[in-house]
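re: that chain from earlier
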Amino acid sequence: MLTALIEFIHRLRDAAIPISMVEALDAAHALRHIDLGSRAELKAALAAVLVKRAEHRAPFAALFDISFAPRRAEASRPAGAPATLSPPLPADLTEAAVGEGGSEDLLAALLEALRRNDAGALRAIAALAVQRFGGLDVQRDGSVQYYLYRVLRQLDLSNLMQRAMRDGGGTGADARRLGDRLLQDEHRHRIEAFRRLIADEIRHRLLELKGFAAAEPPIEDVDFLGASPTELREMRNAIRPLARKLAARVAHRRRLRRHGRLDARRTIRRSLSAGGVPLEPAFRYPRVSKPDLYLLCDVSGSVAEFAQFTLSLLYAMSDEFPRIRSFAFVDGIDEVTALLEESAHRLDVRHLLARASVVRADGHSDYGSVFGTFWDVYGRGALGPRTTVLVTGDARNNYRRPGLDALRAIKERARRVYWLNPERRREWNTTDSIVAAYAPYCDGVFEVRNLRQLGDFVRGLA
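^ sequence. v structure.
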């Protein structure tokens, strides 16, 4: 058991879930106080010791199901049939579901199981529904949400709940209204529990088919350029909590750095109130220098999502920066600071294309033209020693002139110039990517593919 626990902890660390040595020892000690034959107790104990953040619960659950998979019911599986984590199905239900009209029989069996709240039957029906409607054997590259949608679309649980309410009536006007509300709440809880059973069954089958590849990473580690619409929504919801956390860390770091030189004059003046005893020494703390930010964001193609997350995070931490000016570009550049303030700092590319002059010619990225225009129109008179310029984009210039002279002028005038690239480092300088040409004129070029890397950069910037 200890060997399995150590391997499980290594897998959690590989999934970017931080586990310290002390926490690993606590997990080993927790095994003494639970029934090792109960997966529920084991999972709850390890989660209480090892999981410290809400976003780590999903990958923890997936890796736990892989590392401590339940024993398969070998006796209930026919010879030559594939192994499954699902409970054995009732024979009558299986036969009914195979033939024509099986869907109605399945729904009728589900309705009866919901009325009786039969946990065993509900697990078996969930397994059969995933087998019939999920399509995991045909298409294996989907997510849990995708397969869950396919199954629920066929079951139509909302109509099922209405049928259950029609069949379970009461007597008396007042008693009936109260009973209907109680019955509706009870059926809603049971259907929600059944939906969770379906999701668990889909997750188990994906683990069987894919192994560790089925374990979904934390939302902070999902790449911007490859995220699904559901993952993009989760990432947008994670921006505000991430900004609050980063702001707290930056404030704590600044407090720790407040070590100034002793101010003898003020210390002596304070000591007069204590008879010349320097009870309260005074210090000359260094003044914190906060940079003015100029954001140049490429909003062409798939990198527009990355620009949106960068702007959202930096504006959420606007208290850490005295001034932020934002510019969007494709092959033309325009300031969008006022537009972002009108839209609560949310970047809508279609809105920008309609109200800002970010497209000048053919709508393909032209960094050379953008840098030249920015320097001539904005940079020459606005940049200074307190300014930090932040460029977000993939540096794919469509084989056009790079505009190095303008970027060099920006670098000489500004305090710092940083470049954030959402592509993997191994994809830099391939085809029309010219990161290497721009790097000498930047104080740093960073690979920022996900929220974790973006947060690390912003924390260092502030």
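The chain is about 55% helix and 10% strand.
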